[in-house]
Amino acid sequence: MNLHLGSMAVGERGIVTGYTKENRSYRTRLLAMGLTRDTSFTVTRLAPLGDPVEIEVRGFALSLRREEAATIMVQREEQV
Hints:
Layout: E1 2-4, E2 13-19, H1 24-32, E3 40-46, E4 53-57, E5 60-64, H2 66-70, E6 72-76
Antiparallel strand pairs: 1-6, 2-3, 2-6, 3-4, 4-5
């Protein structure tokens, strides 16, 4: 099931599956930061109002604004 990164909770793991067609300007920046297809990440922090969301991806922490997180399509990783 595909959903937006901004709808995930702290501690959840996911995989980037793609991007929405809106806001193409964010897509280039996010790809440059390492959020390519099939990249796994963990949601580490979420501000009280949901902006920003912090994820751990490729060994570093990345904070994303709500608008940026909404453009990233993800799939939850199954908990083992």
